[in-house]
Amino acid sequence: MKTSQVELTNLEIIRSLQALQRVDSASCEFDMTYTLSLNLKTLRRASEDYEEFRQGILHDHCVLDDKHRPMATEDGLDVVFRSDEDEQTAVEKFDKLNDTAVSLHLYRYPMSAFKKVKIPHVLLEHLLWMVQTEDNAT
């Protein structure tokens, strides 16, 4: 089985990674289990690059604590921005980062390969790029 070049946005990469981590690979054939793990590894590397940029945005626009980490709000649910302008700029940068398309070499599978795999439907929507149909077979 060979890889295909797949273009995903950073947000799609994060959602795909979260979904793929929850796939029951025990229900897969060995070769699919192996290539799913390779896809997972590729998505993790891409998500690490994303996280590095995301942290840079936070460091540029947030109040930092004594350990140079973005300071959290009292309830811990958000970060403290330096100003309203910094918050607006950071949100714009996050939106651009999330929407940035990244080209990855990933394994894709014919629809028939998914018949035995236990993937909840709520997760499957984030993994549709893995399904190889006649229209997108390359």
Which features would summarize this protein structure in a list?
138 residues; alpha+beta; 12% strand
Order of helices and strands: EHHHEEHE
Tally the helices: what do you get? 4
Query: What percent of residues adopt helix (DSSP H or I)?
Result: 40-55%
Identify low-pLDDT runs.
Answer: none
Number of structural units classed as domains = 1
Largest sheet: 2 strands, antiparallel
The strands making up the biggest β-sheet line up spatially as 1-2
How much of the sequence lies in strands comes to: 5-15%
Radius of gyration: 18 Å
User: How many β strands by DSSP?
Assistant: 4
Shape, per Cα inertia axes: elongated
Calculate the terminal CA-CA distance, rounded to whole Å: 12 Å
- Judged by helices, strands and strand pairing, the structural class is alpha+beta
Task: Quote the average pLDDT.
Answer: 91
Characterization of the model:
With about 140 residues, the chain is an alpha+beta fold. The protein has one domain (about 5-130). It has helices at about 10-20, 30-60, 85-100, 120-125, and strands at about 5-10, 100-105, 110, 130. A two-stranded antiparallel ribbon has the order 1-2.
Give a short summary of the structure.
The protein is built from 4 helices and 4 strands. It is an alpha+beta fold and 138 residues long.
Give the secondary structure arrangement, pairings included.
Layout: E1 4-9, H1 10-20, H2 30-61, H3 84-99, E2 101-106, E3 109-110, H4 121-124, E4 131-132
Parallel strand pairs: 3-4
Antiparallel strand pairs: 1-2
